[in-house]
Amino acid sequence: MVPSVRLSPATRSLFDEPLAIAVQGLGPRQQVTLRTSLWDEMGELFQACARYQAGDDGELDLARCPALPGGSFSGLEPMGLLWALQPQKPFRRLVKRDVQTPFLLQLEVFEGHGEPPGRLLAQAQHERAFLRDGVQRVPVREGRIRATLFLPPGNGPFPGIIDLYGAGGGLPEYRACLLANYGFAVLALAFYGYEDLPKDMKEFHLEYFEEAVNYMLQHTQVKGPGIGLLGISKGGDLCISMASFLKGITATTLINSSVANVGAVLRYKDITIPPLGVNAKHIKVNKSGIADIVDALNNPLEGPDRQSFIPLEKAECRFLFIVGQDDRNWKSEFFAVEGSKRLQAHGKEKPEIVCYPGAGHYIEPPFFPMCAASMHLLVGKPVVWGGEPKAHCEAQIDAWQQIQAFFRKHLTGKPSGTSNKL
């Protein structure tokens, strides 16, 4: 028999769905190296490889066969060839810029365990897509709002969510559209570094975000009476500010967020919240020029920095904090715990806090490879984000389920055990 790769689903899957990988037609107990390659839209190559030995029947099923030492990972890891993808150039992070096109995953099977690998025995290609059939992508340019709305297939209205990314700016759409695949109307909202929005992070006005909230509350395809917020990093503290000052927010999920205002002045009507102070002396730079910034922010419980603490006790919503316990960007667990204390001190309901040991800062949708270090726009050099690849990957899978269950429970009134999968 000629060796061949068997994938399930065969040709195309959603990026956050598992992909079953097997090789058939090998010799009994034959040693092979499997390699995956993926090019992003900037032409950057990401690769992973693993060493395997086929069974007595010449079959190699990654769900049953452990990877042997010497590759990108070892042990029983059916999705290892995806989550272990690493950039061939340092400090690159895998992101999806155009969600309307899939990533093309190339899978190759080589003879033996040599370096470089031996003869090519089999290969296959697979599309990792972001939009389920029927999901609508609607660019939004209303008033000052610069955003993209994703609407699920079928008849609405749907529970609505506003999705915010961090200090990188621009308009990342990939998390919003993946979430829309599961029955949510999701608005990916830009807030700086995009089109005619401010070019840098000096000052933000909550009135801009209020426009986006009102847009969602008034949309015929969005189910009221309130909406959800989802934010990571800087987007997280903006979500806390929105929940604290704006009406119509029912549920807020924060991924590795600060409970203090960070990086820019925040204004709303006659209220001004200064940014949390930074002490550059606390930044450690290693021999490779990579910065560890985890100690750079001041403590928002001390001195004048207390003015930066966002008054989240004013919020009328439920909170979910997703925390990577190896976050090296800032002290996410400390922030979540202090936010919880503040809410409870004011008689509010205790927020849900889900902690993941071994997870770093960028907790993305499932199967995005962990980014250990990349450029930080505000620091001006590469920074370490933290995380251990396998634990980080497992955290992303679980967090994705937690986020959907939380929003389903608080935005639709359905218990978290029921699924709206389309």
From TrEMBL:
Task: List GO molecular-function terms, semicolon-separated.
Answer: fatty acyl-CoA hydrolase activity
Which residues does the entry assign to the active site, renumbered to this chain? S233, D327, H361
Q: Mind listing the UniProt keywords for this protein, alphabetically?
A: Fatty acid metabolism, Lipid metabolism
List the InterPro entries hit by this protein, alphabetically.
AB_hydrolase_fold, Acyl-CoA_thioEstase_long-chain, BAAT_C, Thio_Ohase/aa_AcTrfase, Thio_Ohase/BAAT_N
Q: Which SUPFAM superfamilies match?
A: alpha/beta-Hydrolases
> Which Gene3D superfamilies does the entry mention?
Acyl-CoA thioester hydrolase/BAAT N-terminal domain, alpha/beta hydrolase
Q: Which species? A: Eudyptula minor (Little blue penguin)
Q: Cross-referenced PANTHER family, in alphabetical order?
A: ACYL-COENZYME A THIOESTERASE 6, ACYL-COENZYME A THIOESTERASE-RELATED
- Mind listing the GO biological process terms from this record? acyl-CoA metabolic process; fatty acid metabolic process
- Give the family per the record: Belongs to the C/M/P thioester hydrolase family.
Q: What is this protein called?
A: Acyl-coenzyme A thioesterase 1
Every copy of the Acyl-CoA thioester hydrolase/bile acid-CoA amino acid N-acetyltransferase domain together lies at: 16-142
Protein's UniProt keywords contain Ligase? no
**Do you know which Pfam families this protein is assigned to?**
BAAT_C, Bile_Hydr_Trans
Superkingdom of origin: Eukaryota
Q: Which residue numbers delimit the BAAT/Acyl-CoA thioester hydrolase C-terminal domain?
A: 205-412
Q: Which gene encodes it?
A: ACOT1
